[in-house]
Design goal:
single chain; mainly alpha; 11 helices; globular; binds 2-acetamido-2-deoxy-beta-D-glucopyranose
Length: about 425
């Protein structure tokens, strides 16, 4: 049976389980086929050339399970409250105004960030946009209070894991003499903001396939676009400061973010997707010579999505019950467990049945490889090409964070990857 046929048949059967809140009528030739809002699920496209997107849709349908659209917007509220309140405290030294937080508990470990003039201006715009995202979700029907989040404690656990330490709130302090303070300066703040921004961006793209209502799906697409745009500015800000040293680690911005990217990549399942501030891996887009990675995409220039379960698994540092890390009491709403994040469906077979726990998307590797050289200038074979996206030294891929560009060298040692192309970042940003 042709693959497209299998896909459409499976979609119909899944629809019985998950279809709801469909504003389209069959008379408009827009069939309410579960998450596939199309009368032509089989193409005009060549599905084998779009397998990354097909796998994201498959993962999204499995991730949705029995959830309703209201459950999905309530899930999104967790992420946007998390980012929005962190950013708002950092920029303005206060929580959301009015009832945007819905009476949710004040985040732990938050304060006004110590920022330069440029950093402050960027922080304010980011915070206001995040507040807008929460407003959108409230208008889209998210009704729950914001969840309890632990910002400083969460980052200390998350970064402890990124440094190969046991992820406790005090591990970094014990190892490096002082805790990580996300609000300490431009570097610590925007490393932290970007860490969450890209979880929001990939999560929002993933939700486009999870939600059934196309009005809200369009909103999620715009939310993902805004988050990616903010992330690109934050990346530019950090790339301009790539060789600045980040306290208390004594490593560069580039190196610390490589570790962050590596740990995010490991916690979302075995596929390779997350990328550092510089990318030398031609399975994604590797810019010749400078390797700057302002906008991480696959070789089709498309950003990747994450399922809610992948986000939960990253933000709770792999906790099996969906509590811990940044979310000490877990997520509000019905979608609150990481279940299924590790199982992966990479093939082009039938859609998984809803709720089976198959909930990861395909890898950027599936989009194929640009055969080097991209231009006469390269890259040909560059450091990190075969195993990593993060372009730092380390062992080959073994599907764990310890091999995703993560270097196990004692952290106070000098950066051990390729020479960071600072001058390029600084030239691009006019510094
Ligand atoms: C779809 O793309 C694949 C991979 O390039 C190719 O082998 C196949 O022939 C294409 N199918 C059609 C119908 O064009
Ligand atoms: C605020 O940031 C500046 C610039 O990085 C730094 O020199 C200063 O020590 C920071 N202040 C505090 C209290 O950390």
């Amino acid at each position: 049976m042709p693959i497209t046929k299998i896909l459409s048949l499976s979609v119909v059967s899944i629809c019985i389980a998950v279809c709801q809140a469909q504003p389209f009528l069959t008379g408009l030739n827009l069939l309410p086929l579960g998450n596939i809002r199309t009368s032509d699920a089989g193409g005009p496209y060549n599905v084998s050339l779009l397998q990354v997107q097909v796998n994201e849709v498959k993962a999204a349908i499995a991730a949705r399970g029995p959830a309703t659209d209201k459950d999905v917007v309530n899930f999104a509220l967790n992420q946007e409250c998390f980012e929005g309140r962190f950013d708002t405290y950092g920029a303005f030294g206060r929580d959301f105004l009015g009832d945007l937080a819905g009476g949710g508990p004040t985040p732990l470990g938050v304060k006004k960030a110590n920022l330069s003039t440029t950093g402050q201006a960027l922080a304010e715009e980011v915070a206001l946009i995040e507040q807008g995202h929460v407003t959108f979700l409230r208008h889209a029907g998210a009704s729950l209070p914001c969840p309890l989040t632990d910002i400083t404690g969460g980052f200390n656990k998350f970064l402890a894991q990124a440094y190969g330490l046991t992820p406790t709130a005090t591990a970094i302090q014990e190892k490096f003499g002082s805790a990580f303070d996300p609000f300490q300066n431009d570097e610590t703040f925007f490393l932290s903001v970007l860490t969450l921004e890209e979880l929001g961006a990939t999560g929002a793209k993933g939700l486009v396939g999870v939600i059934s209502n196309p009005v809200i799906a369009t909103g999620f697409a715009g939310l993902a676009a805004a988050a990616n745009a903010q992330a690109a500015v934050e990346r530019a800000f950090l790339i301009a400061r790539a060789t600045n040293i980040v306290p208390p680690f004594g490593e560069t911005v580039q190196q610390v973010f490589a570790r962050i990217s590596a740990v995010r990549d490991s916690l979302d399942g075995p596929q390779l997707d997350d990328q550092g501030l510089f990318n030398t891996d031609p399975r994604a887009i590797a810019v010749p010579a400078s390797y700057v990675n302002f906008v991480p995409t696959d070789i089709q220039g498309i950003t990747f999505g994450r399922t809610p379960q992948q986000l939960i698994n990253i933000e709770t540092l792999g906790s099996s019950d969906g509590t811990g890390g940044f979310f000490p009491s877990g997520y509000v709403g019905a979608i609150n467990k990481p279940t299924g994040y590790a199982s992966q469906d990479t093939g082009l077979g039938g859609f998984p049945a809803a709720g089976t726990g198959v909930a990861t998307q395909g890898s950027i590797e599936q989009a194929g490889t640009i055969l080097p050289p991209i231009t006469s200038a390269g890259p040909t074979l560059v450091d990190g090409q075969l195993g990593e996206t993060q372009a730092v030294g380390g062992p080959e891929e073994t599907d764990s964070y310890t091999s995703r560009g993560y270097s196990n060298a004692p952290a106070q040692n000098p950066y051990n990857g390729p020479t960071p192309p600072t001058s390029v970042g600084q030239q691009l940003l006019g510094r």
